[in-house]
Specification:
Layout: H1 19-29, H2 33-50, H3 55-84
């Protein structure tokens, strides 16, 4: 015997997105790279424990923040090498 179907279908419950994952992605775009990577790692840990959504956001924040951090490290190394070689001059 089958049960009668209800006259309505309940609205789906929206799953909560981890706030630190969102903050991590936003900060990585705004070039706060170290903070974004740290918050992304914390967000992944929280998502694993709580089952919230936002795993992709946290991973994106970690990747973008990591790439940005590596970019700035390379930039300052190149800048230091250029300054040491005398290729950067200042005019006053």
């Amino acid at each position: 015997m089958t049960e009668p179907t209800p006259a309505y279908t309940p609205a789906p419950v929206a799953q909560k997105t981890n706030v630190l994952a969102i903050v991590s992605l936003v900060l990585s775009i705004l070039s706060f790279n170290i903070i974004a990577v740290i918050l992304g790692i914390i967000a992944l840990s929280q998502i694993k424990k709580t089952g919230e959504s936002g795993r992709g956001l946290a991973i994106a924040g970690i990747i973008i923040g990591g790439i940005g951090f590596v970019f700035w490290i390379i930039f300052f190394i190149v800048l230091g090498v250029a300054a040491a070689a005398g290729n950067i001059t200042t005019t006053y």
